[in-house]
């Protein structure tokens, strides 16, 4: 069975602070994919990143960066110089070769960036 | 990126009535569509997986007779909540997968907020 754990239910920061959202996963698959989604108050999920299990390179996209470490089964997400518009719920998700395209979501982390 | 639409975006219905929600992939053919339900301040819970032309596969605990799913074409799946009750009030989200076994990426619709009074 697959499992995704986002231990941080809520995080509150002040604008311009850096913030890291944790994601720990469990899977028996050798080939799997990890995702991060943003869900603003409107409710529509916004795709942020996909990473496959064979690519452990960290990725940076503007103020966003991701740290994938297979050794600790973690796929953490850092926002640098946070902005009020970053306030949203962020979900980490996992799919694997045995689950095909079915996604397992973590519980989500509510990020609030205060001015 | 690929676009998935849902209709309606919001619906209010009376207890005991049925509501149909449509999910369309606008610029690609969706091999598989997924239906999720999200209660306030909770995560997305997969309800069912539907493949075009075949019966949907429901997750454990989801009532097949209550949540009817029809994936009639490669661009349209519908979810009908039959005999809706207030506890069915939720945010329903669909997603579509093109069958891409390289990216395995799903494209999500904007969601439908159902309120049963």
Q: How would the blueprint of this fold be written?
A:
The complex is a heterodimer of chains A (115) and B (117).
Chain A: E1 3-5, E2 10-14, E3 19-21, E4 24-26, E5 32-39, E6 46-52, E7 59-61, E8 64-69, E9 74-79, E10 88-96, E11 104-105, E12 109-114
Chain B: E1 4-7, E2 10-13, E3 19-25, E4 32-38, E5 45-51, E6 57-58, E7 67-73, E8 76-81, E9 90-97, E10 106-108, E11 112-116
Parallel strand pairs in B: 2-11
Antiparallel strand pairs in B: 1-3, 3-8, 4-5, 4-9, 5-6, 7-8, 9-10, 9-11
Oligomeric organization of the protein chains: heterodimer
End-to-end separation of chain B? 36 Å
Structural class of chain B: mainly beta
Could you report the average pLDDT of chain B, rounded to the nearest whole number?
92
Count of individual beta strands of chain A: 12
What would you report as the Rg of chain B, rounded to the nearest angstrom?
A: 13 Å
Helix content of chain A: under 10%
Question: What portion of residues of chain A belong to β-strands?
Answer: over 45%
Question: Can you characterise this structure?
Answer:
The complex is a heterodimer of chains A (115) and B (117). Chain A has 115 residues and is an all-beta fold. Chain A has no helices and twelve strands. Chain A is globular. By secondary structure, chain B is mostly beta strands. Chain B is 0% helix and 51% strand. Chain B is built from no helices and eleven strands. In chain B, the strands form two sheets. In chain B, strands 2, 4, 5, 6, 9, 10 and 11 form a seven-stranded mixed beta sheet that branches. Chain B has a four-stranded antiparallel beta sheet with strand order 1-3-8-7, with no helix packed on it. In chain B, a hairpin with an 8-residue loop joins strand 9 and strand 10. Chain B starts with a strand and ends with a strand. In chain B, 34% of the residues are buried. At the A-B interface, strand 5 of A face strand 4, strand 9 and strand 10 of B.
């Amino acid at each position: 069975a697959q499992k995704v754990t986002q231990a941080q239910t809520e995080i509150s920061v002040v604008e311009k602070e850096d913030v890291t959202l944790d994601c720990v996963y469990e899977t028996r698959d050798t080939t799997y994919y990890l995702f991060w989604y943003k869900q603003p108050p409107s409710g529509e999920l916004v795709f942020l990143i996909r990473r496959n299990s064979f690519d452990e390179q960290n990725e940076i996209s503007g103020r966003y960066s991701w740290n994938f470490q297979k050794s600790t089964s973690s796929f953490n997400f850092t926002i640098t110089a946070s902005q009020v518009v970053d306030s949203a719920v962020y979900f980490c998700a996992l799919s694997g070769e045995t689950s095909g395209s079915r996604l397992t979501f973590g519980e989500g982390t509510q990020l609030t960036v205060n001015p | 990126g690929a676009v998935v639409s849902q209709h309606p975006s919001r619906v209010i219905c009376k207890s005991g009535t049925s509501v149909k929600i449509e999910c369309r992939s606008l610029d690609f053919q969706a091999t598989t569509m997924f239906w999720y339900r999200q209660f306030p301040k909770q995560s997305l819970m997969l309800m069912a997986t539907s493949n075009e032309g075949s019966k949907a596969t429901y997750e454990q605990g989801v009532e097949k007779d209550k949540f009817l799913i029809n994936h009639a074409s490669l661009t349209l799946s519908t979810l009908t909540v039959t005999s809706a009750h207030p506890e069915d009030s939720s945010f329903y989200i669909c997603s579509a997968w093109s069958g891409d076994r390289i990216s395995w990426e799903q494209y999500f619709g904007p969601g439908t907020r159902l309120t049963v009074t």
